[in-house]
Write a structure and sequence with these properties.
Helix content is 39%, strand content 12%. The protein contains 7 helices and 4 strands; from the N terminus they run βααββααβααα. It has a single domain, classed as P-loop containing nucleotide triphosphate hydrolases (Rossmann fold, 3-Layer(aba) Sandwich), CATH 3.40.50. The longest helix is centred in the middle third of the chain and has 21 residues. The chain is globular, with a radius of gyration of 16 Å. By secondary structure, it is α/β, with parallel strands linked by helices.
């Protein structure tokens, strides 16, 4: 049993990572409730309300053994402790201003409390990275959103090695990356 996790701030590229891992042939945990839209044209690849589900009953992660589960950075604190190395986690980092720009565009209006939102996101980003570094049950890699979009090959190689994915899947994984989807670049 291994729990595979994709995490990061909302609007940081977690859905894109899920698409990449789908093309790698990894089984994905999704309930398909949230359909593709103008903000995620290829879909969200998530389980609706997963953070609340894990918060209420941490053992719910067992339902997703051997599948890739997307959990935003805030939810990492609720992952139950498992034996050493039982989580394999990719954490994607994106420029916070790009994240906030993307959220504004998604909501359709400017956040009047942007500085407060920024501080909250940075706080949870810091907490999440601290937790994944401290916990013995989590093996992880950090992925940079801009690097993945502008020069994908080294990052895809890193993901292939981390998850022990067949190297023949590399081009299928890279094919997910669409420069047109990088609309909130700074």
């Amino acid at each position: 049993m291994v729990n595979y996790v994709v995490s990061g701030c909302p609007r940081s590229g977690t859905s894109m990572l899920m698409q990449i891992l789908t093309n790698a042939g990894m089984p994905i945990a999704t309930d398909k409730k949230r359909e593709a839209d103008k903000d995620n044209m290829k879909g969200y690849y998530e389980v609706d309300g997963i953070v609340d589900k894990v918060k209420e009953n941490p053992n719910v992660v067992v339902e997703y053994d051997n599948k890739v589960l997307k959990i935003i950075h805030f939810g990492i604190q609720y992952l139950p402790k498992l034996p050493k190395g039982k989580y394999k986690l990719i954490y994607i980092e994106r420029d916070i201003e790009e994240v906030l720009d993307s959220m504004d565009k998604m909501v359709g209006e400017k956040d009047n409390k942007r500085d407060e939102t920024k501080e909250v996101f940075l706080k949870f980003n810091k907490l999440a990275k601290k937790l994944i570094q401290e916990r013995e049950d989590i093996d992880f890699i950090l992925v940079n959103h801009r690097d993945l979009l502008t020069n994908p090959e080294p990052t895809i190689d890193k993901i292939i090695e981390f998850f022990n994915i067949d190297k023949d899947k590399k081009q299928a994984m890279i094919s997910v990356i669409d420069q047109k989807s990088y609309r909130n670049r700074r």
